[in-house]
Design goal:
The complex is a heterodimer of chains A (156) and B (295). With 156 residues, chain A is mainly α. Chain A contains two helices and no strands. The longest helix of chain A has 131 residues. Chain A is rod-shaped and about 195 Å long. With 295 residues, chain B is mainly alpha-helical. Chain B contains nine helices and three strands. Chain B has a three-stranded antiparallel sheet. In chain B, helix 3 crosses helix 5 and helix 4 packs across helix 5. The longest helix of chain B has 47 residues. The radius of gyration of chain B is 23 Å and the shape is globular. The chains are: A mainly alpha (156), B mainly alpha (295). Chains A and B meet through helix 1 of A and helix 2, strand 3, helix 3, helix 4 and helix 5 of B.
Amino acid sequence: MNINLTLIGQSITFLVFVWFCMKFVWPPVMGALREREKNIADGLAAAERGEHEQELAEKRAAKKLHEAKQQAGEIIALAQKRAGEIVDEAKMDARTEGERLVTAARSEIDQEVNRAKEALRKQVAGIAVAGASKVLEREIDESTHGEILDKLMAEI
Amino acid sequence: MSSEALTSAQYIKHHLTNWTFGRHTNGHWGFAGNADEIKEMGFMSINVDTMFWSIFLGVFFLWMFRKAAKKAEAGVPGKLQNFVEWIVEFIDTSVRGSFSARNAIVAPLSLTIFVWVFLMNLMDLVPVDWLPLFAGWVGQTFFGIDPHHVYFRVVPSADPNATFGMAFSVFFLVLFYSIKIKGIGGFAGELTLQPFQSKNKLVMALFIPINFLLEFVSLIAKPISLSLRLYGNMYAGEMIFILIAMMYSANIGMGIFGGFLQLGWAIFHILIITLQAFIFMTLTIVYLEMAHHDH
């Protein structure tokens, strides 16, 4: 065990190596390691974010779909209701039109009946006058007895 | 193998002697020819093999990591970058686990310690005779030196100079940050005002030297234990490899048995060298953590 100048030489060598390692080896290697760690962490975070966003988008899409379905249902219900209304309206219109036609026809019939009655009445009066004149043989003056005849006609 | 002309003791001694450059007793500088000359040189000498291998391995480590660091990017990493990042991540986790303050030097320091110590320890797994024999061959062929006098130790961390050098550097950093964070007063207080405390001023004054003695020993024990632990483990590991290697020169039966022993010990040693590098690093982190906080 000879202690000699080697001791000092080794100390200097050692410190020089440490200095070199500290200046030129450790920082770049550590820097690369840290950077890669950061990159990986960023990548993982981005992936997670993407996943989260996808989840959100899926939820949004599902919601939209649900809404659309609901809207379609509403529209269909509305249309059905409207169709019912239209049918009802048409029915109502038809009924009023029918009633109107019936009323018009009825009034026409009434008029026709009245007209026929009038004509009949006139004919009856004529027949009656003719009959009476035949019976009386000119005893009855048409102008004299016109008043009486008119009364009779009104009574018939 | 190389012990043909050597006794076992000489063989072991040859393996445990450093290739040393230093000042001879006559004042000239040169390589030491044998262990006695090294002893005579004393402190004014340097272990060339330890320096060479530690610097070679350290430069290899920094070159490899720098290569990966230059190309480091956040994209898909290549094989080298992956490997480097794996180690850096491991060190970073260890530092974060036991160091709570903010200090940019601690993590690179830990990385350097771990990888460098690991590589130096790894030299223990190179069969003990290979590199010394090669060095002996080079010495004999190109420099005409007797290979028995070419000394070449290849495990820098089995040289106490290397482990003490590192541990003292760490200790220097501990002292530096202790004073920087707590101030000289705070650091001195930490050394003298605990663990024994008293409200009575006279008793407290009596406690101060006792506290200082206890705290100083525990402070100085840090670098000593740090370096001796690594040195002891590696030295013992190397010694066992040398002892196993000696079996090869006995006879063929012993040689085969030694081969299995070497394999087993080498596999076990993989655990030890990694563990020692990790312990050195962890204790460094812990010591620096203590320097940053009052305890």
